[in-house]
Amino acid sequence: MKVFYDLHLHSCLSPCGGDDMTPNNLVNMAVLLGYQLIAVTDHNACGNAKAVMEAGRAAGLVVVPGMELCTAEEAHVVCLFPTLKAAEAFEAFVKENSPPLQNRPEIFGRQFLLDSRDEPVGEEERMLLAASFVTAEEAAKKARELGGTAFPAHVDRDSYSLIASLGAIPPEPDFHTAEISPQGDPRALLRTNPELMGKLLLMDSDAHYLENMPDPAAWLELPENTPQALIAVLNGELPARWYHPGWGEGGRCASE
Ligand SMILES: [Zn+2]
Ligand SMILES: [Zn+2]
Questions:
Q1: What domains sit in the chain, N to C, each tagged with a CATH number?
Q2: Angle, vertex CA 71, rays to CA 212 and CA 162, nearest 5
Q3: CA of 76 to the centre of ligand 1 (A)
């Protein structure tokens, strides 16, 4: 089945995320726009994943629990998990491997934890925008151990991307998938970074505000619309058919 997705969305837990990015607003906007699958990927935290998953269940939308990790290379890597339990185990791992910095909400923004009725249940006190001590390779290894997947985020951007930090996507770990932002030009990127050839190319919005959630444009063909099937495809364990509006279908344009 063809699934319109957005695998990189921030809730109000991210200090830079809009306060109206509540679990129900996120889910209802995604449903309204016509998405069938989304992931919630706050910076270095998974504290709102449970609420967004519950809101998604009530609205008939598949929600994958995830995190946008800031790695030791100061690169963003999106990590997705098959279950809430796996996401929480990854969050515990990240907490253990992060500098002990407290958020300063007046400077960076508040980090709201909500329940599935959008009621506040607390605020995250860790500074979520700080780089962790976890390398991209360690993140990918840990995510895989937990049954999940990891892929470099917005590789076209000149800050907080693996290509910006290292000049290229490293051969290890073997990322099967990479994300390009909607503004990115995959063909230009392929010329400077041929290591992207053959990778499954995702386009996610990285929306921090409701009004930045775009109409669905990219799709993946999945055997079923579940986090498990998605993860297997992103890890290259199942064959993928995919469409990226700037590149074409199934990577066909990559070999032109
Ligand atoms: Zn990012
Ligand atoms: Zn992001």
A1: 2-252 (3.20.20.140)
A2: 70
A3: 5
